[in-house]
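Researcher: For the record, we're logging two predictions in this thread. I'll number them. Prediction 1 follows.
Model: Prediction 1, sequence and structure:
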Amino acid sequence: MQANLSLDRTMLAYALHSKQFAMELSNFITYEYFQTRIQWLYKAIINHFTDPKFKEIPTVTIIEEYLKKNYSQSKFIEEG
């Protein structure tokens, strides 16, 4: 299980490297590839990069703001 999580982390780091890498990865891998507990993070990264207003690598602060805005518990409950 730990080895799989290491691979997941490597794939997420690859996706965060650049928009090009994230889009390349999204062409071959869906969120189901990742372990359940981090699937939401992959979805958030890909959603960030597919949003046309974002063109650069997100900083930690941007990722945090994006997650709070789009993946807050109340938003998740309201929108599923």
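Researcher: Logged. Prediction 2.
Model: Prediction 2, sequence and structure:
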Amino acid sequence: MAALNIFKIYTAQLGNLVESLTANNLTFVQEIEREHEEKRFNLRLFFTQSAYPTPIKWTADLAKNFQIEEKSTPHYAAAVIVDFDEQAFVLSYGSAHFYISKFADLDFGIDIASRLLSSFKIKSSQEFAGSRLRSIDTYKIISDLAYEAGEAVDYIRGIPADVTMWGRNISCGHSVHLRHRKFGVENCHLICQRLVRVLEGDIVKQIPRRIMIHQQDLILQQDKKLIEAIENDLYMADISPTQLSGVALMFPEERDYVLRTPKQRFILNDELELTTLRTIAREDYDGDYEALFNAKVAILGDDGERQITALKDILDYKDEEGYYLEGGRWYRYDLTYLNTIRQEVNRIDTRFSIEMPLFDYEAFEVWKGQQAGRIKYAERFVNVTLAENFGYCDGDRDLSSPEGATVEVADLFKDETIFIVKIGEPQKLNYAIDQAMASLSVLERSSFITQVNGADFYVKQVCLWLFIERQTDIERLSDLNSLIFLTKLASWRKFTLLRGRIPAVNISYRRTLQQKSAEGQ
């Protein structure tokens, strides 16, 4: 069955695309014209000029143990540029997608998916709070397309509404991959024209996605933040856990990444340390990060496939505001993505505390003065106060150690609920979520039963009790202005429900104005 892998190209980038193809051993071969309904279509073929032999790695391994010779195979690639009516598309064959995708409209595939697909079975996505996800699902109707909270889809494969016209499966990523017995180069121009009409049609289903940043000042600003992150260990920057090229997903563990600098050669792994990047920038590029980001990296596949790219193209980086780097380009998550997170967070049972609505600074100062050498931190004061006045069992510092791992299960216990208490700004409350998930993992091994004061305590509900540092109250959890925190909350909700427990959040506040007043007395 014929298959077409089609990219949509920015017409302004056609010249650059041709230069890139030529520079990578794909030479112009022939140009032909097609005509349909008084419309002219131009097709240009670029084909591997001289196929270089690429070693077959597994034969080398066999040759070390058996009496056979290592083998090589010629490597070919091709690209067919189709342009008409100020529209440009490219058919990719072999490894040509590496060179085409740099000049492509990377929204093209998801734009098509949102208009054509009626169901899906495979999707790959970028999670803001984590890394890329690849999931395989049974067929679902698209109205029930189950996106995760905090995920932006960049690859999806499914069944189109019109199977007769498009075939039984369409893969949509940076490109669109079509398989149909009637599709081929002979009528590829008509298929491209049909895709243009699809893009002009209505969206059937909104798919959460990322938005590419084009403003140069914003790109420079994000580059600066990336450099600061590397210099100051503010955030993780490493090799992207999965890279998408067209509809091809590539995984770092299946490839060798070789970075050459003016002074040395590095083999990069999929957990590139910030200290490594910082050291390379200082010692090999005199602190010039732009030169480091433009340094060439050879990506070597097990099948002998070889790609040359810039270091920046393989770095994975996210910041607090929802921007992230992928494929050397800056993106931001769209409103569908953000709304999905907010909707999931607002489904968490949220209670505004009446027992301790505000952190009492005056009482805290008095309490600290009474402790005389004992632990005096603010969360300890909260736990003691709630235990003494409202019937909670104080579990603070009560540690459980399954398999040698030390985990604080909870701060407070009451009514089949464990409470994890944390104080601070939303950006600093992420630890509460990490602790809650770790506690659940520990409790799951003991059928959600733990010991409290020598008696069994069955855990039915997990509650984050957050004393939020802010001057005004919130109406809903989603009013908190921290994308990373909200995303982690949404992930925690699902994590808890999947274990048959009920997630909940208690809200109290710590006002800095009250703190200053208490300190002034």
